[in-house]
Design a protein that fits this description.
Blueprint: E1 5-6, H1 9-17, E2 25-33, H2 46-56, E3 65-69, E4 76-80, H3 86-89, E5 90-99, H4 101-111, E6 123-131, E7 135-143, H5 149-159, H6 182-194, H7 196-206, H8 208-230, E8 246-254, H9 255-265, H10 269-287, E9 300-307, E10 321-328, H11 335-349, H12 353-367, H13 372-382, E11 388-394, E12 401-402, E13 405-413, E14 422-429, E15 432-440, H14 447-464, H15 478-484, H16 486-492, E16 497-503, E17 506-512, E18 539-541, H17 547-551
Parallel strand pairs: 5-6, 9-11, 11-14, 16-18
Antiparallel strand pairs: 1-4, 2-7, 2-13, 3-4, 6-7, 8-15, 9-10, 12-13, 14-15, 16-17
């Protein structure tokens, strides 16, 4: 019997928003100890990884489905993929040994510059060997229409285990169900729309007070959104039309230290995160010539997704998320005062009428015009209603393993929108707060400097909380830290990655200079190799990835 799942209006909006420059996938770069996955040649046993991932896919059936469309209406649905190939989705490559974090970051930026193929299940998992210190990485990409950040944290538990087990469960046979006929899709859609008034009347009869509260919340949400559009965020160097190429960087903080700052200065962990972001953005803007002190009219607004806890949430994915917008106090020079302002705002707004109203708008769009949310999101983006997305996802506070290989860190990625050159995503994992910074390659060429500004903002809050002596930082500050890493930088400059890819006539090779400045978006410039030790070029094994990878 044929089967399908209709996308919600919110999930559809992520497809509608996507264009050649706006890539609507989320993901993460996860770093592991090589451990028992080491192959006899010193690399990684990719066949074992593929077999393990495939053995877990019955727990996440969406990962073996692709998009189809309802005739005439054009609304997307999920149907089983009868051509599913695990080798296309789980890809294998290597950095020249010994690969460093700078090379991995450049590779992650290149991989996340490529859109997912909508003709296939909307996910990829790139397994990267060759990292120094006996490590390997997994760079994952999943389309936002399938999964939000909080559901994504749940899915980590599907692919990873809380103990170092190395066994692989028996793979469940994959028997895709046939896709529904065009006639059935049209019939079901017509019935859904015809019965909508009955569902509305039923909801009103069951809970008239709740129905009225929903209408009130919706009006409040629309009023706040309209007000924000009339007062857009200020123009900054970070807010220009984006291109298709990305940079990716990261850092990690001790979660207990973040909580200690929270206990001293007040608020929640999320409040401290926003205060750190505020301090880092403030430093970055000042260094780019923006005058902030004494400028109360300067508005730097953050869009903060808020997870919705609902009985519908399950490991099958889907988006259950609303949002909160707030003006970050970047003009405030006192770190304690920044925390106070943020704490007061989030206390008054999280879970309030505007957030609940967004939920109501999603339900209305589901029942009436599913394109409504995409149009609404495009209108908000075009008005520059916000300058930056910041999302903080709680993760497991214990180590996770992939076939016995311990995951050290996981750095999440958030998509960029039309005039938003920077996005920040965080994941708490095993006592660490992992920060992922996604940026437009051309708008933020100095992304690492911004990351170091965030690091300094964290240290500043620690000093304000009395956790470390004030003034213990040298006058050189960030410049000293960068200079101290110059040897590692020299090791990483100008290294390229060779992809072995199949062509129509059999295995071939193509250059994908992901780890060098000759990669996509570089304008063809060649990075200097002076003083850099030349590592032997390592081939990337991606022989089953298909032609689409060659195009990438």
């Amino acid at each position: 019997m044929s089967t399908y799942s209709r996308l919600s209006a919110l999930d559809r909006s992520f497809l509608d928003i996507e264009d050649r420059n706006t890539h609507m996938h989320v993901g993460a770069t996860c770093v592991f100890d090589l451990g028992p996955l080491r192959s006899p040649s010193g690399g990684i046993d990719i066949d074992r990884v593929r077999a393990y991932v495939e053995s877990r896919l019955h727990l996440i059936p969406r990962y073996r489905q692709h998009l189809a469309r309802i005739p005439f209406e054009g609304h997307p649905v999920w149907v089983d993929d009868d051509q599913f190939d695990i080798r296309y989705h789980v890809r294998h490559l290597s950095l020249p040994r010994p690969g460093c974090d700078r090379e991995l970051k450049r590779l992650a930026g290149w991989i996340n510059s490529q859109q997912l193929d909508r003709g296939k299940p909307l996910w990829e998992l790139w397994v990267v060997e060759g990292l120094e210190d006996d490590r390997f990485a997994m760079i994952g990409k999943t389309h936002h229409a399938m999964i939000d950040g909080i559901a994504g944290a749940d899915l980590i538990g599907v692919l990873l285990r809380p103990g170092p087990a190395t066994d692989i469960d028996e793979t469940h046979p994959w028997r895709p169900k046939p896709a529904p006929s065009p006639g059935r899709l049209v019939r079901d859609s017509v019935l859904k729309h015809l019965t909508m008034p009955l569902r509305t009347i039923s909801a009103l009869a069951k809970d008239p007070a709740g129905f009225l509260q929903g209408a009130t919340d919706l009006a409040a949400a629309l009023y706040e959104s309209t007000s924000l559009s009339l007062q857009p965020g200020s123009e900054t160097p970070l807010n220009r039309p984006i291109g298709s190429h990305r940079r990716f960087d990261w850092l990690g903080f001790d979660l207990d230290r973040v909580k200690a700052i929270k206990n001293r200065l007040g608020g929640t962990v999320n409040d401290i995160v926003l205060a750190i972001v505020t301090g880092g953005i403030r430093d970055y803007l000042v260094r780019h010539g923006i005058t902030l002190d004494g400028e109360p009219k300067f508005v730097f607004r953050a869009f903060c997704p808020v997870g919705i806890q609902t009985a519908q949430r399950s490991s099958s994915g889907g988006n259950f998320v609303s949002a909160m917008m707030m003006d970050l106090p970047v003009a405030e020079s006192d770190p304690q005062r920044r925390v106070d302002l943020i704490r007061d705002f989030t206390h008054d707004h999280k879970g309030g009428a505007p957030v609940r109203g967004t939920e109501v708008l999603e339900k209305i769009a589901d029942e009436t015009f599913p394109t409504m949310l995409g149009i609404f999101a495009a209108a908000v983006e075009s008005s520059r209603a916000y300058n930056l997305i910041v999302t903080n996802v709680p993760g497991p506070q214990f180590p996770l393993y992939l076939l016995g290989a311990r995951m050290r860190e996981s750095y999440p990625l958030v998509p960029l929108f039309g005039h938003q050159g920077l996005g920040i995503a965080l994941l708490s994992y095993n006592g660490r707060l992992c920060w992922g910074f996604s940026a437009d390659r051309d708008i933020v060429p100095d992304l690492h400097d911004l990351v170091e500004s965030v690091r300094e903002a964290f240290a500043e809050l620690g000093r304000a909380a009395g956790l470390e002596p004030a003034g213990n930082r040298s006058a050189g500050g960030v410049a000293d830290e960068i200079a101290g890493d110059s040897a590692a930088l020299a090791e990483c400059l100008g290294v390229s990655v060779a992809l072995e890819l199949p062509g129509p006539g059999g295995p071939g090779s193509a250059e994908a200079s992901a780890a060098s400045d000759t990669g996509p978006g570089s304008g063809g410039s060649v990075a200097p190799r002076a003083r850099a030790r030349r590592a032997p070029r390592a081939a990337v094994s991606a022989t089953d990835a298909g032609r689409d990878e060659t195009a990438a």
